[in-house]
Specification:
By secondary structure, the protein is mainly α. It is built from 6 helices and 2 strands, in the order H-H-H-H-H-H-E-E. Helix content is about 55%, strand content about 0%.
């Protein structure tokens, strides 16, 4: 009789552990999805600002058409729906590099650098990048927590049974580590370089994850930021008046879909 009670007790304890582990996994997955939605909101805000930046630069540097079109093409790709976090990191990295080249070009136009609208847009971009970087660190920390549970024994048994999988990090491609760094406040590039010159960022953090190695939460400076130690990354629905752009209201694929 005692043996029966012991067995029943073990079964009850095992059931309680299973329920608690399952609930913990679900909670972690939901937090990851919420963290991704926060990033997506900031990315859309970034996309919204870009057409205004392009139009402002176009008014002073119309012959820089190739650079302007490159930015809009990169924006169009970044805005396409159905992207996973890893895919979004790649397309946003390309967009960051295109923006860096555009801002570097703007350095050659003193009137443009003094334009109040352009300066306000540059400040908005910088603020947005800060929020993206903060959201990215938070999201990647949640992903690391979920993935640890999914891969660890014995919680991995519950995860496999419930179909809960690893989530993807939002990591900036390593190629963005060489993105130009521009400082408008000094009237030239950071480091005292000549106007319009482009060079690798020397700020702490290598692009995204650079941001972007599994578990890595740091990244490099974004091209248009005047300072700060966090990158990226990292919203819009306009067009450049020449061709239609995809609907930016389409959310990217949630991390675990």
């Amino acid at each position: 009789m005692i043996v029966v009670w012991i067995i029943l007790g073990l079964i009850v304890l095992l059931a309680i552990w299973g329920v608690a582990t399952y609930n913990g996994l679900i909670g972690s997955r939901n937090k990851v999805e919420e963290g991704w939605r926060q990033i997506d909101v900031e990315l859309k805000r970034r996309h919204d600002l870009i057409p205004n930046v392009v139009e402002t630069v176009k008014g002073y540097a119309q012959h820089e058409r190739g650079t302007l079109e490159e930015v809009m093409r990169a924006r169009s790709v970044a805005m396409s729906g159905g992207q996973t976090p890893a895919q979004a990191a790649q397309t946003e990295g390309v967009l960051s590099q295109a923006l860096g080249r555009l801002i570097a070009v703007a350095e050659a136009y003193p009137d443009l650098k003094a334009n109040q609208n352009f300066l306000a847009l540059q400040q908005e971009l910088s603020s947005t990048e800060d929020r993206i970087a903060s959201s990215r660190r938070y999201y990647n920390a949640l992903v690391r927590e979920l993935n640890t549970k999914v891969e660890s024994v014995p919680s991995n048994f519950i995860a496999n049974t419930a179909g809960i999988k690893r989530a993807e990090y939002f990591e900036t491609p390593a190629t963005e580590a060489v993105a130009p760094s521009v400082n408008f406040g000094s009237g030239g590039l950071e480091g005292g370089g000549p106007a319009g010159a482009v060079g690798p960022s020397t700020a702490p953090g290598a692009v995204g994850g650079a941001s972007t190695q599994p578990g890595s939460l740091s990244g490099p400076d974004v091209p248009w930021r005047s300072g700060g130690d966090d990158p990226l990354v990292t919203s819009g629905h306009d067009d450049d008046g020449q061709q239609p752009l995809p609907n930016p209201n389409v959310d990217r694929t949630p991390p675990n879909d």
